[in-house]
């Protein structure tokens, strides 16, 4: 991906700190702790949404996570795949090649394809964790997880490879996307108020 778009930390959730994030923002990544409270909520949410039958846009690119400790890579793929109209890729981009080859696959087929694509996993796990400590190896046991938020067709989607399907949260727009995504991030934080291990990363256009 060419450097016209960059991942950068969001340092706070109040309007003043959000105002310094370069705009436009096309994706938000949330790193959060996987706790018992979250796992219980996740199960309840899945059961509820199965009954509601969300109308997921066919334009949403979603991939399941079947590789351990690859959530950073999955988050990056979700962020980039759903914003290809905004981004520029280098001619030899392994990620662009992966997206082109998997565009018509199911989420599970994409996951199986990723398992065999070593270049994507090795190259991009670190990219999605800019500002973080060294990425864990695939054999480490970790309890932190990356998810992505994107705007597809004016809807705010949560994309989590551990979940069976995308989650629609609300309507959104290019102008309000960061603030709308942050509101969902606040819900994650409120669910575990004693936790401090939350990081928000925005994919935004370089202001230079």
Architecture overview:
- It catalyses: Thiol-dependent hydrolysis of ester, thioester, amide, peptide and isopeptide bonds formed by the C-terminal Gly of ubiquitin (a 76-residue protein attached to proteins as an intracellular targeting signal).
- One of its GO terms (biological process) is protein deubiquitination.
- The chain is of the alpha+beta class.
- It has one domain (5-205): Ubiquitin C-terminal Hydrolase UCH-l3 (3-Layer(aba) Sandwich), CATH 3.40.532.
- It is 35% helix and 20% strand.
- The protein has helices spanning 15-18, 36-52, 71-81, 94-102, 107-115, 118-124, 177-191, and strands at residues 5-10, 25-33, 144-152, 155-159, 167-171, 199-205.
- A six-stranded antiparallel β-sheet has the order 1-6-2-3-4-5, with helices on both faces.
- A hairpin with a 2-residue loop joins strand 3 and strand 4 (155-159).
- The longest helix is centred in the N-terminal third of the chain and has 17 residues, at 36-52.
- The chain is globular and about 45 Å long.
- It starts with a strand and ends with a strand.
- Mean pLDDT is 90; it is low at 131-140.
């Amino acid at each position: 991906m060419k450097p016209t778009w960059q991942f950068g930390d969001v340092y706070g959730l109040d309007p003043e700190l959000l105002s310094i994030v370069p705009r436009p923002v096309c994706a938000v990544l949330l790193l959060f702790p996987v706790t018992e409270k979250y796992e219980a909520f996740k199960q309840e949410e899945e059961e509820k949404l199965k009954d509601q039958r969300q109308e997921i846009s066919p334009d949403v690119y979603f991939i399941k996570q079947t590789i351990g400790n690859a959530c950073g890579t999955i988050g990056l793929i979700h962020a980039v795949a759903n914003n290809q109209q905004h981004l520029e890729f280098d001619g030899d981009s392994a990620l662009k090649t992966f997206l082109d080859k998997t565009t018509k696959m199911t989420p599970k087929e994409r996951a199986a394809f990723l398992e065999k694509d070593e270049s994507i996993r090795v190259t991009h796990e670190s990219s999605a964790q800019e500002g973080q400590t060294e990425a864990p190896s695939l054999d480490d046991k970790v309890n932190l997880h990356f998810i992505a938020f994107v705007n597809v067709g004016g809807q705010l989607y949560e994309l989590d490879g551990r979940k069976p399907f995308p989650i629609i949260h609300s309507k959104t727009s290019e102008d309000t996307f960061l603030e709308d995504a942050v509101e969902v991030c606040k819900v994650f934080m409120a669910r575990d108020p004693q936790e401090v291990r939350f990081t928000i990363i925005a994919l935004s256009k370089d202001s230079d």
